[in-house]
Specification:
The complex is a heterodimer of chains A (about 650) and B (about 130). With about 650 residues, chain A is α+β, with helices and mostly antiparallel strands. Chain A folds into three domains: about 375 residues, no CATH class; about 150 residues, no CATH class; about 100 residues. Chain A has 19 helices and eleven strands. In chain A, helix 6 packs across helix 8 and helix 8 crosses helix 11. Chain B has about 130 residues and is of the alpha+beta class. Classes of the chains: A alpha+beta (about 650), B alpha+beta (about 130). The interface between A and B is large, with 71 and 51 residues.
């Protein structure tokens, strides 16, 4: 079975190389049959890589431990769903997942564009097939998902128990799918440059792919943060780890692109900028794949250690240089159709949004690869920590939130003073009131004050603008308010989906600010019967129990929780000691409300029963996950086919 | 044309502002990232400075005082070893013979006082043997 998988990959490589070449030659020399043949070849690649993927799934399900990927990441007692998720647990497996998704997306694009985009599609197909070939080469020559072990072990090593968490089933595939999703917009952008068709066709074709990739990346990042919060037990959800940054950077650039695309559609401006953005987004997703999969930044040693390093860097270099050359070559055709009329306009706000987002991305990139840079330049490795990232991104995110509020209130082209004042009055008023109330209520951290006031400014701006629209519709159509609301939303899904996403960002921002500035942490050692207090909570350590299951030893500590004198429940932080895995796994005890999270971690214990605990109170964390839900909703609405899109 | 210039200047101002933030942030948290041997060699030169050290936890060197939450161990690389002292809850990822990064300072007594043991997104891509 493994052989079938490997052979499929080989055949797919041949087919993808043929397809990439045939597309280009066919469209340039005007041989429609060659283009058709290239298209068929592309569909074949989809079939072949799917076959290879199936082969791996089969190997996983039948516990074929002769295959390295299966032996290293699964064991017989693993629940089915985790056995399947082991597909992308390893390096080779995740590359196969990438290649499979790309072949699927390429096939979908080919079928979506039957009879359309005759000039663009061959070039786009070629780029996608070339990328596919790259991943196939990596798998065939460097990390084979079907690599066999010399001897077949009787039992597998099992999945890292930290990954046995529902969120972990969705987090890697979401991020990977987001990365792959960015290939399509990139391919079309390059196709537009290569074919000279630099009108709006290419952007129209890719709007929903970019949105899908953006949504998957956003959700993937949030799922990862939630998993870290619940499983890793250090009390936080984001540590600016290189792997985390690798997932964040393409999302930030994709966000910028979604905004600047609106400007290009409406005013024919920023054409060069959009090309560069989409190339950066794609390159960052390749970089992200590489960073996450090779672990090069987690050790002190350099880039060149990983065998895949030169390949990835080479690919990224080709993408970067190739696109820049093409853009330069076509710079006349990419001239803006309009100029920026005024600083005080929606276009200006969008532009500022883009600059800020790209600025943050650049800062994060520099911070992430700084050890490699400093070593190359000064011979000594210097790392930057969380304070760097927070100091740089914090104020810029605040500025972005401010922009989110200004945008709905400001007109296109040139905003008039009277309009501005009228639009800003209510939101500004609300923000000021909130700021004053919070200050009087005891919030003194200036950053938190500014952030919360800004968030209220933005939410009032959004609701104000939304209400204006509903009221207008109600008057014009004599619908009741509910009908007007739904009608308005459904009549312009991209816009109102976007508003919902902005609200989601506000919720997340509120949660992040609250939990960053007002968290409380205490470490205590308690004997059974002893109590500790944190904020208004009292926790009494009742005792410890142990339980043995077929796969692990579970130690559970029980604590009774009181809010003041009122008993509100018990919490049971645990530690798992797995038979097949050396490290203990912490199961955090979490009591989550809208206001705050009570978070208890079981540390260690001595023979006499004294047990250490880390107890945290994290305010507003649930707002982050609520924001995630809104993000999904808003993204889905924006993604939904809309009549306004000219097909 | 004047508009373009204004707008270009605006963009540059913003990028400079971000760069400034970056510079301030850098000052606050840049740390040398060293191997155990490098720490041993540098010795007095880095005493008191906040650094990160990468190495392996020497098996059978781990001493955990659960009551006071004090962890002592020896961090090694191919050549040298470094005594480390850490106060606090030990992250799950820490175990004998594993690869860790500690952040802290080298004290005058030759012991490295770690403020943090850095855990990273688990290396599920390279199986821990």
């Amino acid at each position: 079975m493994a052989d079938i998988g490997y052979i499929s990959l080989l055949l797919a490589l041949g087919a993808s190389l043929y397809s990439a070449l045939a597309f280009v030659i066919g469209v340039r020399k005007r041989y429609p049959e060659l283009v058709a043949s290239a298209r068929n070849s592309l569909l074949c690649v989809g079939g072949l890589v799917s076959l290879a993927a199936l082969a791996l799934v089969y190997a996983l399900l039948t516990h074929d431990f002769q295959i390295e990927s299966v032996a290293y990441y699964t064991s017989r007692d693993l629940p089915l769903i985790y056995t399947l998720s082991a597909f992308w647990a390893g390096n080779a497996g995740s590359l196969l997942f990438w290649a499979w998704l790309l072949s699927l997306f390429a096939a979908i694009v080919a079928m979506q564009n039957r009879g359309r985009n005759r000039e663009l599609l061959p070039y786009a197909g070629s780029i996608m097939m070339a990328t596919e070939a790259f991943f196939l080469i990596l798998m065939i020559f460097l990390t084979n998902p079907f690599q066999k072990l010399l001897s077949t072990p009787a039992e597998g090593s099992g999945l890292n128990p930290l990954l046995e968490n529902v969120g972990m089933i969705f987090h890697p595939p979401a991020l990977l799918a987001g990365y792959v999703g960015l290939t399509v917009p990139f391919a079309f952008a390059m196709a537009a440059l290569l074919s000279g068709r630099l009108g709006d066709d290419w952007m129209r074709s890719i709007r929903r792919w970019a949105l899908l990739a953006w949504l998957l990346l956003g959700l993937g990042n949030l799922l990862g943060a939630q998993w870290a919060y619940v499983e890793l037990g250090w009390g936080g959800y984001w540590s600016w780890d290189p792997v985390e940054n690798a997932g964040l950077m393409p999302w930030l650039v994709a966000t910028a692109f979604l905004h600047s695309a609106v400007i290009q559609r409406r005013r024919g401006m920023l054409k060069v900028w959009n090309m560069v953005l989409i190339m950066l987004a794609f390159n960052l997703s390749i970089f992200g794949t590489f960073l996450t999969r090779s672990g090069i930044l987690s050790s002190v040693h350099t880039f060149s250690e990983s065998a895949m390093g030169p390949f990835f860097l080479g690919f990224m270099g080709v993408v970067l240089l190739g696109s820049l050359i093409l853009i330069y070559y076509h710079r006349q055709q990419l001239k803006s159709e309009n100029e920026l009329d005024s600083f005080v306009s929606r276009e200006s706000a969008f532009l500022l949004n883009n600059l800020l987002l790209v600025g943050i991305t650049f800062a994060i990139l520099v911070g992430t690869i700084f050890p490699a840079i400093s070593e190359a330049v000064r011979g000594v490795k210097i790392a930057v920590g969380t304070p760097f990232f927070n100091k740089v991104t914090g104020p810029v995110f605040l500025a972005l939130i401010l922009l989110m509020g200004i945008c709905p209130l400001i007109g296109w082209r040139r905003a008039r003073m009277n309009d501005l004042i009228r639009s800003f009055i209510y939101p500004l008023g609300t923000a000021t009131i909130v700021g004053v109330v919070l200050f009087l209520g005891g919030i003194r951290e200036w950053y938190a004050l500014v952030a919360f006031s800004l968030c209220s400014f933005v939410i009032s701006a959004i609701l104000f603008d939304w209400f204006r629209g509903v009221r207008a519709r109600h008057r014009v159509r004599s619908d009741n308010y509910l009908k007007a609301f739904l009608g308005l939303l459904w009549g312009n899904k991209p816009r109102y989906g976007g508003y919902i996403v902005h609200i989601a960002i506000l919720l997340i921002a509120t949660g992040v600010v609250g939990s960053s500035f007002y968290k409380m942490e205490k470490e205590v050692a308690l004997a059974p019967g002893e109590a500790m207090t944190i904020k208004n909570y009292t926790l009494i350590y009742e005792g410890k129990t142990e339980k043995v299951t077929p796969s692990k030893l579970v130690t559970t500590a029980t604590l009774s929780v009181f809010n003041g004198v009122e008993f509100i429940g018990t919490m049971t932080p645990e530690k798992y000691f797995h038979r097949s895995y050396q490290q203990p796994v912490t199961e955090v005890a979490l009591r989550s409300t809208l206001l705050e999270d009570l978070y208890v971690v079981l540390g260690g214990w001595t023979a006499d029963g004294t047990t250490t605990f880390k107890v945290l109170v994290n305010p507003l964390v649930s707002w982050i996950w609520m924001g995630g839900g809104f993000l999904f909703l808003g993204g889905l609405i924006a993604f939904w086919p809309d009549k306004r899109e000219r097909r | 044309m004047i508009r373009r210039k204004r707008f270009l200047i605006g963009g540059i101002v913003i990028l400079l502002a971000v760069a400034y933030l970056g510079y301030r942030g850098f000052e606050g948290s840049a740390t040398y990232y060293l191997t155990v041997s490098e720490v041993k060699e540098q010795g007095g030169r880095i005493a008191g400075e906040n650094v990160r050290v990468n190495g392996r936890v020497a098996p059978s060197s781990v001493d955990w005082d659960a009551e006071n939450n004090i962890l002592r161990f020896v961090l090694v690389d191919e050549e040298k070893g470094l005594s480390v002292l850490y106060k606090g809850i030990v992250p799950d990822a820490f175990k004998a013979d594993s690869n860790v990064v500690v952040e802290g300072g080298l004290e005058s007594d030759g012991v490295f006082h770690a403020d943090a043991i850095l855990t990273r997104c688990p290396s599920k891509y390279a199986p821990e043997e």
